[in-house]
Amino acid sequence: MPSPSSNRGIAGKAYNVVRELYLAAPIGFGFKRAVKDACFGAVSLVNPEAGFLKAWQAKQKFERRRRLIAQNGDAIYGGEDELFLYGIQQRWTDLLALPPEEVAGWLLPMLQRRLRASHLTKTLVPQVSVIIPAHGHAIYTLLCLDSLFRQQTDVAFDIYLADDLPSDPTLSGYAARLQAANIHYHRNPVNLGFTRNVNAAARRASAELLVILNNDTFCHPLWLDQLVSTYRRLGSSPQVGAVGSKVLHSHLRIQESGCLMKAGGHPSPLGRGAHAFDPRFSFLREVDFVSACSLLVPRQLFLELGGFDERFSPGYYEDPDLCERLRQRGCRTYVQPASLLLHEEGASFGKHAFAAVQEEKRALFNQLHPAPISTQERFEAKPQLLFIDAYLPMPDKGSGSIDAMAYLEYFIARGYHVVFYAQHHNNYFEGYSQSLEAIGVEVLQDNFQSLPSLLAERSDAIRLVFVSRYYQLDHFLPLIERALPDAALIYNTVDLHFLRESREAGLVDSQLAGRQPLKASPGGSSVRLAQLRQRELAYIQRADASIVISSYERDLLADILPEVNSVFHVPQCRPFIGATQGFEQRRDFLFIGSAHQPNVDALRYFQAAIHPLLQQSLPEYRLNVIGQELYESFSRGEDAELLSNPHVAFLGYIEDVMPLFSTSLAMLVPLRYGSGIKGKVVQAIQHGLPCVTTTIGAEGLELPDQSSVVIADSPEQMVAQLMALSTDPQLWQVTSDRAEAVFQARFSQAVFEQRLDRLMEQRIAPRLLHHPRALG
Length: 776
Fold this sequence. Notes:
Number of strands: 25
Structural class: alpha/beta
Radius of gyration: 30 Å
Strand content: 15-25%
Low-confidence stretches: 1-62, 71-75, 509-524
Shape: globular
Helix content: 40-55%
Number of helices: 32
């Protein structure tokens, strides 16, 4: 690092970078505070070099702080996501200490600059109108606006700032700059109170959806996106009336994650005082009401109901009253905990007036709604399903995760409350835990509650257990049988492990001539394989229903266990996409996969046997390999020849694979062993991408004689097929066009649901009739 006095120009540029860093994103802890001092303190303004030095030193302090907190395992449960929340909190509390005029001096011009790149531009038709009722406390309002301009969303929205304190000129002094930032600023000539102020703003708004947002809040960047996507996803059957957020105190404990209404009109905030990432209060669920400090409601429905009942003016109990009236219209209220915001409770109304006003409005609520129906009874009546897998679903990284999500969504749609336990992801996992919670799955975390503890607590409520993979069933079955003796059991084989491992062992033993052999797995003896086969078949017989995704494995089990009628063939489920570009826009071949041993062997086989022939026929060919774990596996091994092959490009993790599927000529899947359905082959069919694979690769797909999947079991055949698809545009198009018919007949949502419905009707429904909870 250069001396701060060595180059004033460089230091000045560094100062600007650091200043923009502070304005652009919350980072957290002392770093934010020091950057604030560096950027806005008197020393920084006079001497940019000194400001840069302070920020650089503070960053080291921040990193030390982060390491210290991360080491405290009982304090950080949300990983990087929780550290990010600390950063938001630090920014909020730091800036609240500043005079409003100082914040406005840099914030409002910044909002105007950001307007060009935001979803608040006048050229977009807003889908959402965010209504911010303000009653003094200008500093809170400015910081609330700051958090709105940081939203990471594709939702076009506008902002209606309703100033309800005419005696305070602070906000009105910024009116011109607020309007320049495309904020609809309106100052009431007289104080209307919260309910009337919101109703008046709702009448001025024009978007389809309203989001009512307190001014004493600071929103997470995904706050709005989660609210709107939840409303869109839940749809209109039953109709969604309102969606609310998880509200956190400024000290990052839960203020509420939705609310229930107890007898006598006493609100019961779910999760109050609990950790921000407590999984019991982190999943989407129906509630009695959500707080008006963050409430989404369709504008037309809100206006049809007359908005907030103005008898509750100036405020309190207007939100449970609205949600109760929505319920009477057949609409439900949900809380989406993935939509997060900080809230300084009572700041916008006045903490001292809280108790007296609340009691007055509670009496009015009881008068209007003497017998409200609690959603808690409906929630508790839901059958619960325990879903066990090796890992949390990561749909962007593996085909099996896409399958897991399809099963979860199926059971949620059929009225189950799903509790998910991942053996190897048994604590919060950034991004992936929240993606499950956002659709209503309760993700069990060992640092909050162990699986045995949960089973003891919910032994009567859990009626169905769904276990994916042999090794997970082998590990957890004794606990399940002991803790849940009356629950039905579905075993999802994913693939038959004894079949895959016996094929692997056979390939090792064969030492195929001219091909690089596999490295034998530890314990791959015939005795171990026989024991594995015996145990897996015993588990299939024990389960109330077993799922295989391959028709080949269905037929194999029918031969081995002819007396068993509980095996169901449920294929993978995907939406059909088709080819988005023609032959002329395509080049290169594609391989995608995890570090699953059959994938590793396939690429070694490619390097040893296929590459030399393909290089002769297509000297400029290229094979793109997607998969971070696969790359890391080869990097650790003895595969220097493959890694150095100029025709093979290891791309690692690719978040969006669509561009590669739409620009590749063919999927190459040279598998020599395995079991189950090969997700990469299904993915190729899904995208209308011709696929060249082996008999093993196409096994269980029930393909017609002519399809988009071409079988080639020798290196020579594979090269010939790749050569033909690369040089014959008409052949490529005909092969691609065959994909849709195959896909719709075997891998559509309709086929998936029909097969699962049959399983549930024939095997699970009769079993659940005898569950003690159903009987009593």
